[in-house]
Amino acid sequence: MKILIIGAGPCGQGAAYHLNKLGYSNWKLIERNDHVGGLSASFVDEYGFTWDVGGHVLFSHYDYFDRAVAESLGDSYYEHQRESWVRILQRWVPYPFQNNVRYLPDGALKESLDGLRNLSGNPADSENFREWMDMVFGQGIVKYFMEPYNRKVWGVPLETMSKGWIAERVSVVDLARVERNIAEQRDDLSWGPNNVFRFPKYGGTGAIYEGIAKPLQHKIHLGCEMTGIDLDQKTVTFSGGRTESYDVLINTSPLDLLVSRCRSVPEQVREAVGGLVHNGGLIAGLGFDGRRDDSRCWMYFPESNSPFYRVTNFHNYSRFNVPDGDLAQHFSLMCETTYSSHKPVDKDRIVQATLDGLISSGLIDQAEKQRVSSRYLIDIPYSYPVPTLGRDRALATVQPYLESRSVYSRGRFGAWKYEVGNMDHSFMQGVELVDRLLCGKPERTLNGLAG
Ligand SMILES: Cc1cc2nc3c(=O)[nH]c(=O)nc-3n(C[C@H](O)[C@H](O)[C@H](O)COP(=O)(O)OP(=O)(O)OC[C@H]3O[C@@H](n4cnc5c(N)ncnc54)[C@H](O)[C@@H]3O)c2cc1C
Q: What confidence score (pLDDT) does residue 82 get?
């Protein structure tokens, strides 16, 4: 059985790594870029700043993934304690916001507590993400943080999103705990799977995947874009016209693009992928001359005085993210803005708008603005696969059809499941698919059973 893998991001690499570990050699991996890593790649700009494709932090639910990362990085990584904050009403509130509302000014604090004390409805009965928020957090927290922040990140009306993906992604709230935090003037920071995270010393997040790919590189073909698939003949066409046959195709490119490249597909499958929703992201990497003493890792920005929803103090993750590793002379801020048909963004102006937003949200001052030495913009047309109300129905039409034609689509946009779309999940989707194909084991991550 010849296995052809499309994409050298974490998912395609997970499949390739595991095939190799199992001693299975009849496979090939095809990647359109001239580098591996996909959305988890990193880049060094002309001034020597390293950039990720948005703030990536490494945390894992899987020993298998941990071992692959350890083989790749050895001891060449730093471990950080998460320190993240929310900028709101001209002050900083520790994350998770809902546990730390004591930082709010009196009026907003009262609204938040009143909302929590007067919750109504059973969240299990809510019909969409927006309704779920109201039932779990109440009006105040929704008004100040949950609604504006999520609208900024997702770039779609929140009523169109489901609530099924939430489990580990949104910290819910406990009124007694919030009241105790207020009474004891206590910061409550420990929630979440990523409160301790690792980061490669050299080369950004992408170094992990450069390392994993290295022993496999003789089977990884870079600069080769899949442009068409003939499901009957079981062949893939690449840019330049070359074709390649397969017995099993593992796809990690976006599912809607995959289907659009298939030659003959039933109309209902085409219609179903047409209902899948995603947003795009603009990552503005700004390198500065000067020193920045600020221990925060990343910060959230729900308000409209900045285009971005998140900014990372990227120099804090590794000093080698700045030129010569010299933190006395350089610092770097990585700023993420969402765009979508509901939320258009002027790409030509985004870097300037980002700089203005950094000033209006109090992250830098006018003098620092004059000391920008590098402006590095990354445009990612596929950033977040949106868990919409119709997503699971669409996937239930598309995936079984593709599998009946020996095409298995996995990974962040291949499977289109945000809740299992992080690096560890994506890598393990590749691993577990191989285990299913070769050993008949069930795929736990794809089916929401891992964690
Ligand atoms: C802004 C942002 C922040 C994130 N933060 C985190 C984080 O903090 N922690 C975390 O764990 N994860 C994070 N992620 C998620 C992480 O980036 C993904 O989990 C991971 O990259 C998905 O891997 P993948 O292999 O499924 O897809 P991708 O990384 O998208 O890889 C797919 C690959 O397929 C290739 N490809 C596409 N089309 C073709 C074609 N036609 N022919 C050939 N090759 C093709 C692409 O070039 C790419 O290399 C973040 C993602 C984003 C966008």
A: 86
